[in-house]
Amino acid sequence: MLQILALDLGTDTLPAIGLRAEQPAKRVLRRPPVSGGLLDRTVAVRAFGVLGPTEAVAELGVFVAALFAAGWRPGAAWPTGGALLAASGAAFLTVVVMQCANAFACRSTRLSAWRLRWHGNRLLVVAVLGALAFGVACLVVPPAATVLRQAWPPLAVLPLIIASAPLLWTVDGLWKAWSHRGR
């Protein structure tokens, strides 16, 4: 429960504020309006139908990979102690990275994050860096890590955690291309 609260308050808030500074798309007023119902369904499908499962699979995959890195194998007793805390930290950091990646993906409803200028919204860049710093602090500052019941992930899973951002951008870009085909 405290991990969810830390994610919501510590790593969601800053990128949301950074997105507020995003400039509107050029010619946005020249396009016909989108009905609220269609827009709501598009956002819901994008958030829960595409990106939600992508994040869940990545987080669970990193969690299991961290357990494997600690020596656990299916059929063995469920790990406890440091191995479980490190796996929890790996999943937590994956959520943080994917939420930060999602902030960049949300800059446009049509273009993938790959096609946007990274420095186009400097407040968002600073906000994402702050959210990442907060996420890391939750793992390396002993009182926070103890309260949140997690530890720094094994080095072997750090590439997977980092790869979760491009994974999210790719899935988001494919969804945007598919949902805007023929327009």
State the gist of this model.
The chain is mostly helical and 183 residues long.
How would you explain this protein's 3D organization?
The protein is mostly helical. Helix content is 68%, strand content 0%.
Secondary-structure element sequence? HHHHHH
Strand content: under 5%
Give the N-to-C terminal Cα separation: 43 Å
Find the count of extended strands (DSSP E, 2+ residues): 0
Give a quick account of the main beta sheet: strands, pairing sense, barrel closure: none
Shape estimate: globular
Q: How much helical structure, as a percent, in the residues?
A: 55-70%
- Mean pLDDT comes to 84
Low-confidence stretches: 37-45
Number of helices: 6
Q: State the secondary-structure class.
A: mainly alpha
- Give the radius of gyration: 18 Å
Strand and helix map with partners:
Layout lengths: L1 H19 L15 H34 L12 H24 L16 H19 L1 H7 L9 H22 L4
Helix pairs in contact: 1-3, 1-4, 2-3, 2-6, 3-4, 3-6, 4-5
Q: Which tags fit this structure?
A:
183 residues; mainly alpha; globular
